[in-house]
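Researcher: Here's the sequence for the chain we discussed earlier.
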Amino acid sequence: MPDQNVSVADPAVVKRAVGAAAIGNITEWYDFGVYGYLTTTISKVFFTDLSGPVATIATFGLFAVSFLIRPFGGLFFGPLSDRIGRKRVLSLTVVLMALGTFAIGVVPGYEAIGIAAPLLVLFARLVQGVSTGGEYGSAMTFIAEYAPDRRRGFLGSWLEFGTLTGYAFGATIATVLTAVLTEDQLLSWGWRIPFLIALPIGLVGLYLRLRLEETPAFANYVSGEGKQRGSAGQELRTIFSRYWPAMLLCAGLVLAWNVTNYMLTSYLPTYLTDTLPGHGEDGVGETAAQVLQIVVLVLLMVVVTFLGRLSDRFGRRRIVMAGCLGLVVLSLPAVLLLRVGGNVATFAGLAVMGLTLVCFSSTLPSTLPAMFPTHIRAGALSIAFNISVSLFGGTTSTVMGALVAGTGDLNWPAYYLIAAGVVGAICIYLTRESAGRPLQGSPAIVSPEELTGSRR
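Model: Thanks. This is the structure I predict for it:
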């Protein structure tokens, strides 16, 4: 008989849990890729009465709304996940995310219904943002609570494999449609196709999540001390009064991770195609920038789970610290490569930045849930994560655009990444190593192989 303080993971169930969690990230970042790559087209459809630059700003504004609203989603869905279970919340958020993206694809254009068109898109972005705010923290918690302690890094890295897959899939579809359709076809109906595809993706996610039971950690909590759990308000007071040091460390790590993430995926396409040429440097063409970025994302998909496995063997802190030091040391050389222009130098600069990003993406999904105990894990993680993303990640493009325009210094992306690396290095230095250890407030989780080996 296994020790009563040890839970044995069923490999088949763990695989289903990882897939069910990762598909939510696919849905979220599919939306990001499609919206980002079709920004110019969307601006023409929904802001017909505005000039090109103003329409583009308005379109980015609609996109930014989903970031501004995310903390409210975290405040609502995170504690809810600690009260009614991870599975129920994740089933709801994946549907809402898919509906928010799908809805954009069925909204008539400005020429058909006037100002109501962008207002309906705004509502869809609000739905998408609120649901996303509850999705990622609960998804990290879900995988972490299912995974064996010695494989949590590897299994958690598949969550970010879903991120990369979703973004690359959305970006590829948008790029192909832009290449094969005429501008009139794209404006009249072609742009709607990728948004409509989001609904079946979300329904697949719902099906996968409904097939699963609640996580063992949450089930043990509910059957024990969870019987006496208080209200959501009491949980929020507990989070901010007792766990604020862990919240700050979590937010700092998310800052380093997401500033790098949004620099690469959101700001650099504009930097390469508009900012550099606008300052008399070469840059690259729009299609080349899109293709190079997709290639880098595919490269990261190959690397991310390998680094997740390494974090199980050598520790999370070492991998994350390597990413932070990479930002400090390599950000300026990477940006200088981008400024050289041409496909080879641009790819090299993007790849260097991507490889620093993957140190965070592969390891933090298993690091962050371990910072909090079971009874407030999803709530604390969702709140800290989304506040940091909204304040620092989602604003990266806006801040970079303002700093470069205001100073004329094209190296500002490097300076910003260096600062993020310093913050991340301090936070990971102060964070306890969690590789191979049980989650706080949970029994040890082992694989059947580990249990068999311990009996010999």
